[in-house]
Design goal:
By secondary structure, the chain is mainly alpha-helical. Helix content is about 50%, strand content about 0%. It has a domain at about 40-108: Orthogonal Bundle (Cytochrome Bc1 Complex, Chain D, domain 2). It contains 5 helices and no strands. Helix 2 (about 40-45) crosses helix 5. The longest helix is centred in the N-terminal third of the chain and has 19 residues, at about 1-20. The protein is rod-shaped and about 80 Å long. This is Cytochrome c551. Keywords: Electron transport, Heme, Iron, Metal-binding, Signal, Transport.
């Protein structure tokens, strides 16, 4: 009888452990975007410093960057870097830099 209870306890422990270790989806995950879009480029290369919604973090807030800087200025900063921001021309293709500059310049 004692062995039966020990077996039940062990099985219960294993079941509870297995159920509690499942990962839950988080709402902090970035939304899915199509590859090749400026949004995808931003998520891959910029989001860590500028935040999931352009709100800033390590880097400045970009939610209204287009009202402060023109497309050419944004492109120059992306390409060559500025301050603590590294140049992105080694990491992002020229075509994608162009799309990203346009997209950011529309944030007003």
């Amino acid at each position: 009888m004692k062995k039966s209870w020990i077996a039940v306890l062990i099985c219960s422990f294993i079941l509870i452990t297995a159920c509690s270790s499942q990962t839950k989806p988080t709402s902090d995950a970035p939304p899915a975007v199509d590859a090749g879009t400026p949004e995808a480029t931003y998520q891959k290369n910029c989001m860590n410093c500028h935040g999931m919604n352009l709100q800033g973090g390590v880097g400045p807030d970009l939610t209204k960057v287009g009202s402060k800087l023109g497309k050419e200025d944004i492109h120059k900063i992306l390409e060559n870097g500025k301050g603590r921001m590294p140049a992105q021309k080694s990491y992002i293709k020229a075509e994608d830099l162009e799309k990203l500059s346009t997209w950011l310049s529309e944030k007003k």
